Protein: Adenosylmethionine-8-amino-7-oxononanoate aminotransferase
Amino acid sequence: MPDSPHRPGPHSGYGPGELLALDRAHVWHPYGPMPGRTDPLIVESASGVRLRLAEPVHGQRELIDGMSSWWSAIHGYNHPVLNEAAHGQLERMSHVMFGGLTHEPAVRLATRLVEITPEPLRHVFLCDSGSVSVEVAVKMCLQYWRSVGRPAKQRLLTWRGGYHGDTWQPMSVCDPEGGMHELWSGVLPRQIFAEAPPAEFDESYAADLRDLVARHADELAAVIVEPVVQGAGGMRFHSPGYLRVLRAACDEHGVLLIFDEIATGFGRTGALFAAELAGVSPDVMCLGKALTGGYLTMAATLCTSRVAEGISLGEVPVLAHGPTFMGNPLASAVACASIDLLLGQDWQQEVKRLEAGLREGLAEAEGLPGVKDVRVLGAIGVVQLDHEVDMAAATEAAVRAGVWLRPFRDLVYTMPPYVTGDGDLARVCRAVCAAVRAG
Structure:
């Protein structure tokens, strides 16, 4: 039977027009309608910090990636070290179930994560995505309290302006007003919210945090926050001092503390993990995004021995969670290579270099009409507007400048790969300013 024009044979290829038509007909893109109302750009390959398009768009065939593919591709694309790790593991096995079996890449990765994360995190649950790692973290905390005879401790406390993922429990601790998940406010578990943390340390706000934890301690399983940087909820920065306040309050009132380091982990803030900026450690930590250097989807939930032993001594002495691709050998091998690549160089100096370049390059934005704030921390540069950004116009302006950005809400921001050179970084900053003018 001949191949259908819509079901090509294994060696068939699509032209750009046909690819976009099929994409529009069949592919549901993130945070978009079905069918899509705007055509995405077609990327045919990527190398270093550049995305190569299938055909020129606004005069550009290559775009500097100012987003690190949603903050994950910290080493850029097509990196020889990560390629070699992937190829070597493919020749051995790409996957094997983790139930009843184990393998060297996953064991090595878990051991490495314990070595580099703050004490006393000791145990590692490998999972599929950042959102799932938050689900696992919440499940750990809920089951811990049930196992130790405190089943009424079922709620979570966080602050407004956060974002923790798109699955069920993570949605419940995202900002309940104006966030992406406001639609589900009457269905999701009802959590406890403090106001969004101020940028500078404020003792009255710290007192409110202490009071909330104290007042709700009997029903709180955990406090969960993004340390120092609130990511997709608004790209806000806050004082590390609030993490110390939460750690002390949780210890005093018998509440577990979760740090969601999915966006901040692996050097993005200038510290390997943002918790280090406060000098405290959580009971549970979530990692993802840059874990595999942007090569494969993988995340991890780490916990202390107290949490693990509490669960394991309970009436149901297992954590009943087991993703099919848990501990995937291919992702584990690449993650190990990515961590070694990061720590085998002076990554702190590279992030400081990017921070200096972002401060210099984005200074121009401070004088532009409609700009409310410009802020930089580590390899994160943010321009906040006083109005909702015109995403289509801002994106087009950035593309015309030769850069890929993904503005949202009232923000035009960049999180470039750590390997971005000074010239390319300056171009990214000019593109941010162009997007601000257009948006």
Remarks:
- Residues 1-11 have pLDDT under 50 and may be disordered.
- The longest strand covers residues 50-57.
- The longest helix spans residues 130-147.
- The chain has 14 helices and 16 strands.
